[in-house]
């Protein structure tokens, strides 16, 4: 092994990434649970496309975004960190090019390794990797990801019993533009379906899968994001700035640092970080993340968990519940002040890890929305009695409202019982008029809402808040944007977020993505929402 122990090397790595050292226990657990890395490198001609981004670090801590570079350059930047981390912390790693090397590297195998033999071999191995990456020719128009996954599944399958018994997993990493082809370079629906099937089979083995996409192709990113929502131990990452925007849409109170992104790329990040770009964290998860970032295993630091949650069974007044969070906010403020400022890629300036003002707003919003949805659910059930027991999600067996803010979130039983949160003004309206209550501003509902208002209030157009429309499992798949996602931003910073938010909404509402068993009212709702969002998007961006 290297002269420094893996434990000390990992501490040094966290420090170099400007990450809080309190994170070490959580990262160390992931390191110990990792058997090895198997890395696939896409060296197809698709990697020559110029739609990628890399960063240049400034002396003041800033990170300048360099646009319109080829995908291979973005891949090399991510691969460089992977190799440095593996060599310094001793992570046995095997690398494979998808296609056979040609040109200056033609005499070498497409398979090479790092930290698989003796520590004295590391300098030679690193030089070989640099040579292979620098001289890759990228002249094959084939990306046989499916074949590669099938091959890995056979290798890992032979070791699966031993891995399960030891409590370890193999981290499988793909650096790719993502579009799978067959051996003839052809792609299509059947090829993509076979790819998904092989990836599903791989995910059932003792593995953690990381797909590091090097592309801005929306169809490709959408395909992988769908898989991210359905596969276990599966994380899809884009470039740093794209990931930061995804995190900001759902959890804008957190500064998504380059260090957090790098940890996710190599599979050492705590699991909760993989949810940041998928959905708003629950109240308990926010507390858990803050413990990981700023407390670790320290006994001398206290970050109190509020004793009351908005899901408890007894009635709570809003003011009394929020007061329970004051000790947490005060203690958190003291911890944040001790940490270095981080580059915020959304605001393009240095910022604290946590925006306490936005966090407090998020805590209030989650409490209020949980209360509203419980009351709306009760009123909706009275208006639409279920035929066969309570409405439940066919995949999880849980009330869809129970999964509103994350997995394993219990349902509220009694909060603000005397107040109904289904708008009484909807009772005498048509469906179109009810939708207009979402799309336009009161009191006369003649002026359209802003795009940011439409995006953060999407759930209010869905049942149970809108009881003019029947329920469907598909509604629960929408990933809510935080109320603070578009606040406190200048126009230059706001526009990219609005574009990404509108793109995600239109993808969700797209006719090709909708279930085939929708009712007439559900179809009208989705089409109208698509039209409204597209119209407001066009008014801003043309």
Keywords:
alpha/beta; two-stranded antiparallel sheet; 17 helices
Biggest sheet, strands in spatial order? Answer: 5-4-1-6-7-8
The poorly predicted ranges are 310-315, 387-425
> H/E element string?
HHEEEHEEHHEHEHEHHHHHEEHHHHH
Binned strand content: 5-15%
Terminal CA distance reads: 58 Å
Radius of gyration: 25 Å
For the residues shown, what is the average pLDDT? 87
**Tally of contiguous helical segments:** 17
Which class best fits the helix and strand makeup? alpha/beta
Tell me, what's the shape?
Answer: globular
Give the fraction of residues assigned to helices: 40-55%
How many individual β-strands? 10
Main β-sheet description: 6 strands, mixed
Molecular structure report:
α7 (218-230) links the parallel β7 (207-213) and β8. It is built from 17 helices and 10 strands. The longest helix has 28 residues, at 356-383. The strands form 3 sheets. Strands 5-4-1-6-7-8 form a 6-stranded mixed beta sheet, sandwiched between helices. The protein has helices spanning 6-16, 24-32, 71-89, 122-134, 145-166, 189-203, 218-230, 240-250, 258-265, 283-294, 318-323, 326-337, 356-383, 431-439, 451-456, 491-509, 520-541, and strands at 34-41, 50-57, 63-70, 93-97, 111-114, 169-176, 207-213, 234-237, 342-344, 349-351. It starts with 5 loop residues before the first helix and ends with a helix. α5 (145-166) packs parallel to α6, α14 runs parallel beside α17 (520-541) and α16 runs antiparallel to α17 (520-541). The model is unreliable at 310-315 and 387-425 (pLDDT under 50). By secondary structure, the chain is α/β, with parallel strands linked by helices.
């Amino acid at each position: 092994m290297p002269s420094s122990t893996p434990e000390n090397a990992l501490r040094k790595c966290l420090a170099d990434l400007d990450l809080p050292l309190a994170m070490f226990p959580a990262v160390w657990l992931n390191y110990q649970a990792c058997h090895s890395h198997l890395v696939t490198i896409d060296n197809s001609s698709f990697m020559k496309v110029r739609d990628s981004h890399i960063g240049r670090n400034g002396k003041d801590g800033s990170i300048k975004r360099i646009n319109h570079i080829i995908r291979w350059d973005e891949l090399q930047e991510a691969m460089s960190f992977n190799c440095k981390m593996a060599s310094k912390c001793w992570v046995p790693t095997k690398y494979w090019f998808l296609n056979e090397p040609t040109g200056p590297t033609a005499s070498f195998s497409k398979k090479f390794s790092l930290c698989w033999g003796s520590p004295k071999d590391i300098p030679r191995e690193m030089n070989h990797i640099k040579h292979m990456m620098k001289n890759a020719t990228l002249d094959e128009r084939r990306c046989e990801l499916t074949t590669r996954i099938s091959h890995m599944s056979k290798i890992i399958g032979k070791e699966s019993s031993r891995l399960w018994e030891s409590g370890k997993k193999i981290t499988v990493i793909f650096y790719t533009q993502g579009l799978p082809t067959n051996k003839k370079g052809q792609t299509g629906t059947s090829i993509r379906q076979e790819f998904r099937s092989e990836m599903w089979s791989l995910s059932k083995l003792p593995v953690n899968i990381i797909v590091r996409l090097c592309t801005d192709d929306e169809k490709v990113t959408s395909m992988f994001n769908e898989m991210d929502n359905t596969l276990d131990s599966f994380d899809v990452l884009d470039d740093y700035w794209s990931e930061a925007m995804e995190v900001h849409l759902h959890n804008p109170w957190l500064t998504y640092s380059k260090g957090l992104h790098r940890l996710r790329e190599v599979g050492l990040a705590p699991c909760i970080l993989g949810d940041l770009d998928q959905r708003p964290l629950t109240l308990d998860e926010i507390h858990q993340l803050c413990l990981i970032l700023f407390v670790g295993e320290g006994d001398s630091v206290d970050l109190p968990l509020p004793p009351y949650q908005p899901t408890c069974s007894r009635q709570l007044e809003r003011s009394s519940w929020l007061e329970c969070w004051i000790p947490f906010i005060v203690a958190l403020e003291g911890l944040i002040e001790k940490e270095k400022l981080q580059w915020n890629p959304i605001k393009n300036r240095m910022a604290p890890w946590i925006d306490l003002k936005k966090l407090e707003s998020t805590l209030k919003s989650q409490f209020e929305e949980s209360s509203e949805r419980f009351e709306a659910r009760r009123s909706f059930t009275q208006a639409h009695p279920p035929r066969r027991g309570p409405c439940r999600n066919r995949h999880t067996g849980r009330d869809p409202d129970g999964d509103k803010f994350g997995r394993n979130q219990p349902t509220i039983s009694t909060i603000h019982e005397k107040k109904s949160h289904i708008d009484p003004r909807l009772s005498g309206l048509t469906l179109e008029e009810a939708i207009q209550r979402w799309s336009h501003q009161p009191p006369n509902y003649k002026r359209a809402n802003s795009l940011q208002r439409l995006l953060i209030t999407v759930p209010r157009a869905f049942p149970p808040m809108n009881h003019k429309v029947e329920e469907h499992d598909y509604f629960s798949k929408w990933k809510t944007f935080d109320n603070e996602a578009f606040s406190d931003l200048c126009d230059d910073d706001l526009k990219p977020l609005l574009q990404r938010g509108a793109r995600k909404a239109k993808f969700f509402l797209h006719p090709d993505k909708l279930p085939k068993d929708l009712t007439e009212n559900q179809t009208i709702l989705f089409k109208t929402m698509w039209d409204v969002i597209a119209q407001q998007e066009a008014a801003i961006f043309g």
